[in-house]
Design brief:
Blueprint: H1 3-17, H2 34-39, E1 50-52, H3 59-64, E2 69-72, H4 76-87, H5 89-96, H6 103-113, H7 120-133, H8 162-172, E3 175-178, H9 185-188, E4 194-197, H10 220-235, E5 239-245, H11 248-254, E6 261-267, E7 281-287, H12 297-310, H13 313-317
Parallel strand pairs: 1-2, 1-4, 2-3, 4-5
Antiparallel strand pairs: 5-7, 6-7
Helix pairs in contact: 4-7, 4-8, 5-7, 6-7
The protein binds S-adenosylmethionine (SAM).
S-adenosylmethionine binds next to loops.
């Protein structure tokens, strides 16, 4: 390991130790890939403005705790939640602490959440309660927008993590909160800024129809728009990292762009109990951050070698079209 890598490695280990956990559980949460994502950052990442246009639970944001930038998600109730956490943490804590944890209360509050006319703080307190007590911590709505996840039967959930809400409130004061399409970031990010994209993933199943599949209302034309957004950021001198599933249609979009590189990583997620889908899950990270200035490229290389050894990786890489 040369001198530069030693310094970067130290920085990387320091980052891993800092921990502000997300408040909400969110589908597609990025906790398991944080080390790899952060290893791609430049070492002075905290001095740069940071943007996260598909915020969800914000696992990466809370790990790096940026000093300025923007966060965004198309889900308006989610972004209202973070605005209330930032601006009214004590009122939120007080209100959410009034809700009892039992099945009857859950369905009563779920109905209330689905009715119009809630104040922003009430809306946020109900979202917190439902997120902590709903089955699997899912956020799912029906075609008319009603939250419809059943009661989760957790034994003793920590519904109102007070200290975390206060800490998150302090960090959120550093950023602007938006509720927009991800493409807003082209207007807001400036040269030298960092941007992390975690869009709804393309499905891995080979039987899925890529052009018509939509998750979170996000279909393949949105994936193409996202690739164009990355190109725009690149030409404006903004650094980006994007995660997505390891599927040829997505790799195809990015692989031929000279200033981008595509890294394959293994997500240590809980895997499906179905025998047919059991096995390691690969994902891709795309970035325009040059290898020479990434904090922990060495970490990525190490993982890559191990992955190759453990998983007959050569066969998998053949799956990539180019
Ligand atoms: C995979 S999740 C992000 C998970 C997040 N990184 C975490 O750690 O929890 C994708 C998010 O993208 C949001 N989304 C979907 N379409 C969007 C769009 N066009 N613009 C911005 N956000 C969008 C969804 O509401 C969802 O919260």
């Amino acid at each position: 390991m040369n001198g530069k890598n030693k310094i970067y490695m130290k920085e990387w280990l320091k980052i891993r130790e800092m921990s502000l956990e997300p408040i909400l559980k969110w589908a597609g949460g990025k906790r398991s890939l944080i080390s790899e994502i952060m290893a791609l950052f430049p070492p002075d990442y905290r001095a740069r403005r940071y943007h996260e246009p598909f915020f969800g639970g914000g696992a990466v944001f809370f790990k790096i705790m940026p000093k300025s930038g923007t966060i965004n998600d198309i889900n308006n109730r989610l972004m209202n939640f973070y605005t209330v956490v930032r601006d009214h943490p004590e009122k939120l804590i007080e209100m959410a602490n009034q809700y009892k944890h039992d099945k009857e209360t859950y369905y009563k509050l779920r109905d209330r959440f689905n009715q119009p006319g809630l104040s922003n703080i009430k809306d946020a307190s109900l979202l917190l309660y439902l997120n902590k007590t709903a089955y699997n911590g899912l956020y799912r709505v029906n075609s008319s927008g009603g939250f419809n996840v059943p009661f989760g039967r957790y034994k003793n959930p920590n519904i109102v993590p007070e200290e975390r809400i206060r800490a998150v409130s302090r960090i959120l004061k550093n950023v602007k909160i938006y509720n927009n399409d991800f493409s807003y970031v082209v207007d807001y990010a400036e040269k030298g800024d960092l941007c992390y994209f975690d869009p709804p993933y393309q499905p891995v199943s080979s039987t899925a129809n890529f052009t018509s599949y939509s998750s979170d209302g996000f279909d393949f034309t949105d994936q193409i728009r996202l690739c164009k957004t990355c190109l725009d950021l690149d030409s404006n001198g903004v650094y980006f990292i994007l995660s997505n599933s390891f599927v040829s249609e997505i790799i195809d979009l990015y692989i031929d762009i000279d200033s981008f590189r595509v890294e394959v990583v293994q997500a240590n997620r809980a895997i499906s109990s179905k025998v047919s889908t059991r096995g390691p899950i690969y994902e891709i990270l795309v970035t325009n951050i040059p290898k020479e200035i990434s904090i922990g490229d060495i970490v990525i290389q190490y993982r890559f070698k191990r992955l190759k050894k453990e998983s007959n990786f050569d066969n998998i890489i053949k799956f990539t079209p180019k």
